[in-house]
Design goal:
Elements: E1 22-24, E2 34-39, H1 53-56, E3 65-70, E4 76-79
Antiparallel strand pairs: 1-2, 2-3, 3-4
Length: 89
């Protein structure tokens, strides 16, 4: 049995600039709650750093930041810096 309800919608969770997953932390389950959302390639996101220096040069960096917003059905949707929601997929 799945923990999540079957009615929760799946919104776009990819960075509009580079396509990486968006990272966020939103513990509040109330409708309209917000938190900061970052691209998974952002310097502030948690990631594994390779030990080999030649592999470190291949690390992608992206500065995209937005907001995570809790929707009525419990899902989380993302807004970009202009306050517009990212498109649904």
């Amino acid at each position: 049995m799945s923990y999540f309800s079957e009615n929760i919608r799946q919104w776009n969770n990819r960075c509009p600039d580079c396509g990486a997953h968006i990272t966020f932390r939103l513990n509040n389950g109330e409708y309209g709650a917000t938190s900061i959302a970052r691209c998974g390639n952002n310097i502030g996101s948690t990631r594994d750093i390779p030990r080999d220096k030649s592999d470190r040069r291949k690390i992608k960096l992206c500065d995209w930041r937005g907001k995570a917003v809790r929707m009525r059905d419990g899902s989380v949707r993302f807004k970009d810096g202009n306050g517009r929601f990212l498109i649904e997929w």
